[in-house]
Write a structure and sequence with these properties.
The protein has about 475 residues and is α/β, with parallel strands linked by helices. Helix content is about 40%, strand content about 10%.
């Protein structure tokens, strides 16, 4: 007899990253990386773990929304849920009263991301596979049935998606073997937070080069002179062969993986991220002033749902060889649909829990593959690196079939709080999650919950008592 869902438990977990400046940018100046965390319980040992990411205040509000959505699952047979995850996603998003406070955006949508991710985690654990392996072992028909298609069939139909997946199915095993061997390409953001001193930026950049990375991202938007100075510091290190790890030779900046990315003489690439701080005209002029440091793209140059604004910025910056990337705050698949249709982005940056879970992520992966736009997921936050390596593996193995120009964000913060933390190999690439018990890799240590749950955890009690 299949297990049934019997209940749920949420945890408001907050880490005091604002004290060290981790996560700081032009828009978000005091980030306490936080997880609105949920456990879906069954009448067996099977449990599903999920979370969505916030930066502190308001995390409790998301937890309440998670609880309201989780109520809809109590009493459900898990095998009936797993049989058609797309239908399950439609059911979770269809409560008319809860939908009213979105619809399909904001708090209720990121809460759905936590719940849907917890279901996928439970599904993978029930099959003794990491989440990515669960999905890439599905038939094309099963993947299509697991995908959220409502409102996007003017961009991609179920039939088109099925054909795309079928075309890639025969060579999945080859790609899986390759990525297991070499790892998935990554880029590093940890050196480029705005709250860091020039000395810390330089030290962390050197350490990132030594660790094998060749894509680097820097936060911008607070002060042009400061941004240009910091950009030159980073460029001065990543473009200098003396800092390359022993045994590493410069990559070809004109090779297929780097052409059009403004790579320097060592084959290193710099990206910049404004975190939505500018109006459209200001974004254009500001980024022109940073052309000297040769960024591949400007990320989130303006409001995240301003599709035409992004298109205008992309058009204006194209003569300077600078692209546009966004998606971290694109609140649903329809925003991505319009960004792609309007040719507004060069890089698609999905977020694992701003979108409402795996089923909605699949729809964006399929659209991006159809439009020929590389997917480079956002992972700047607690738990996001653990999540998104699964999504990039699904994209490479089952959907787009390429990782040549893709890079997945890596930030070296808070991984120690997870039972199955992600890891990076000596060439600056993600290792493939391979533990049969890890599901979606998002289970948090109980000791970390006890310490950082807000406001009752031991850390937060000590702060209030100080």
């Amino acid at each position: 007899m299949a297990p049934k869902i019997t209940g749920y438990k949420t945890h408001d977990i907050r880490f005091p990253t604002s004290l060290s400046g981790d996560g700081t940018d032009a828009m978000n100046t005091d980030c306490d990386y936080s997880a609105a965390y949920v456990k879906l319980l069954t009448d067996s040992d099977l449990t599903g773990f999920g979370m969505t990411f916030t930066i502190g205040r308001g995390n409790d509000i998301v937890c309440r929304a998670i609880e309201e959505l989780s109520k809809r699952l109590v009493g459900k047979d898990v095998e009936e849920i797993f049989a058609n995850m797309g239908k399950t996603w439609d059911y979770l998003s269809a409560d008319s009263q809860l939908r009213w406070i979105g619809p399909e955006k904001g708090v209720i949508h990121i809460a759905l991301g936590a719940v849907d991710n917890a279901l996928w985690d439970m599904f993978a654990r029930s099959r003794n596979k990491p989440l990515w392996k669960l999905v890439v072992d599905m038939s094309p028909e099963e993947i299509v049935n697991a995908t959220a298609f409502r409102y996007i069939t003017d961009a991609i139909t179920r039939e088109e998606a099925l054909t795309m997946l079928q075309e890639k199915a025969a060579t999945r095993a080859e790609r899986e073997a390759k990525v297991r061997e070499v790892g998935y390409p990554a880029y590093v953001t940890s050196a480029g937070w705005l709250g860091y001193s020039d000395e810390k930026v330089a030290r962390l950049t050197r350490e990132a080069v030594e660790a094998g990375f060749n894509h680097f991202k820097m936060k911008v938007g607070a002060d042009r002179a400061s941004d240009l100075r910091r950009g030159k510091i980073i460029r001065g290190i990543i473009d200098d062969p003396q800092y390359l790890p022993a045994g590493h030779t410069p990559r070809d900046p004109n090779g297929p993986a780097l052409a059009g990315k403004n790579a320097g003489p060592t084959g290193s690439v710099l990206m910049i991220d404004a975190n939505q701080v500018w109006d459209v005209p200001e974004a254009i002029e500001y980024v022109k002033d940073l052309a000297e440091i040769k960024p591949w793209f400007i990320e989130e140059p303006t409001a995240p749902d301003d599709i035409l604004g992004h298109a205008a910025i992309r058009k204006a910056l194209k003569p300077y060889g600078i692209g546009v990337a966004t998606g971290e705050h694109a609140h649903n698949r329809m925003v991505f649909k319009q960004l792609l249709q309007a040719q507004a982005i060069d890089v698609c940056q999905i977020d694992s829990c701003r979108l409402a879970g795996v089923s909605e992520v699949l729809s964006v992966l399929l659209m991006a593959a159809k439009f020929g736009v590389p997917v480079c997921p956002h992972a700047g936050g607690v738990g996001l690196c653990e999540y998104v390596i699964h999504l990039s593996l699904i994209d490479y193995i089952a959907v787009s079939g390429t990782m040549e120009r893709n890079v997945l964000e890596f930030v070296d913060h808070l991984h120690e709080h997870f039972l199955y933390p992600c890891s990076i190999n000596q060439n600056g690439r993600y290792n493939v999650p391979s533990n049969a018990n890890e599901g979606y890799s998002i289970e948090i240590h109980e000791a970390s919950i006890s310490e950082y749950e807000f406001p009752t955890g031991s850390y937060w009690k000590s702060v209030r008592g100080a």
